Amino acid sequence: MTAGSSTGQVMHDMSVADPRPVKPLEFDGPLPKPTTDMAQIRADLDRAGYAIAAGLLTTKQARDMRDRLAAEIDREEKIDERRVRGFFTDNDDLNRRISGALLINRYRPFRDLLEHELPLTITKEILGPQTLDESYLVHSYGANVTRPGSAQQGIHRDRSGAIPLSAGPAQTRFIWCLDDFVEENGATRMVPGSHRDLEPQSWTVRYESVPAEAPAGSVLIYTDMLLHGTGANVSSDLERAGVIIGYCPPWWKPMINFPMTTDPATMQGSSKTIRQLLGYSSVAVGFDEPWTYAPDGVNALIVPPKMDW
Ligand SMILES: O=C(O)CCC(=O)C(=O)O
Ligand SMILES: [Fe+2]
Questions:
Q1: How far apart are CA 288 and CA 302, in angstroms?
Q2: Is ligand 1 within 6 A of the CB of residue 183?
Q3: DSSP code of 287?
Q4: Atom of ligand 1 nearest to the CA of 146
């Protein structure tokens, strides 16, 4: 297959002696490129299983968020390095990760990303209508900074193996690029077309993959059907910061219990949409249970579950 190759990559865990057989790409046609054209984004998602939306953040916004992210990671690392390194899905402890639960408490732009129009539009289109228009939820939120020498992450799906692939997407996923993503600094690797593959992911094959290269301020869009993973950072001096957010239907359990992890003071004056996305609602289907034992500050933020958008 001509469209990129992962076989030449540095893989610290496996090296060139990686004995696993290569699973070649089964995808023909042009690879998604950064675009501002919504029709192209939809077409790329359908055909390749991912798309690259360009220009969602200005260069300055991306740089400010990147600097703030670096500062928050430093701050956490000084308290306890296990908070930001050695994440269970990484092959070494060179990357730095931080939970979105911390980020949204500390800097408003990390909250604003959650209700940006583009991810919400795409989420609605992909996950489809919900019973009684109950709001989608933020399923997961974290940032991943690759650093020189860090290894490629194993190619995977952001999905529980317990959900059959035939059920279709259970999550929309967005990686906000705060730096230019290039192959050298570990741009996310994608397996185009794998969103249609109903074979469970295997650790015993080496998936051929392509780097999703994108300028800072872009967003990589995919779903939990697509095989992908962080690229190896083979540069000597480039970092690559990405903020990763997933959305799911309301009947799914988010990985972060935001009403319990978010400082209520930071949510004052926030929109109904972001509160719904973060789970400050009861349910549209089922018992409407008051949050009897929640702190007053949390109870004061509760909104109805029905989406207005
Ligand atoms: O940082 C990236 O490029 C992707 C990370 C990822 O796929 C994950 O952590 O699940
Ligand atoms: Fe992932």
A1: 12
A2: no
A3: -
A4: 1
**CATH code for the structural domain at 22-299:** 2.60.120.620
Nearest ligand 1 atom, CA 144? 1
The CA 158 to ligand 2 mean position distance, Å, reads 5
Q: What are the phi and psi torsion angles at 307 (to 5°)?
A: -75, 145
Half-sphere exposure of 29 (CA within 13 A, CB side): 11
Structure-block tokens of residue 290: 């008051």
Question: What is the maximal distance between C-alpha atoms in the chain?
Answer: 59
Evaluate whether 277 touches 138 at the Cβ level (below 8 Å). Answer: yes
Ligand 1 atom showing the smallest separation from residue 89 Cα: 9
Q: Tell me: the pLDDT tens digits for 174-203? A: 999 999 999 999 999 999 999 999 999 999
Please give all residues whose CB falls under 5 A of ion ligand 2, grouped by chain where several chains appear.
Answer: 158
Sequence-distant (≥ 6) Cβ neighbours of residue 113 within 8 angstroms: 119, 176, 243, 245
Q: Where are the domains of the chain?
A: 22-299
pLDDT at 18: 81
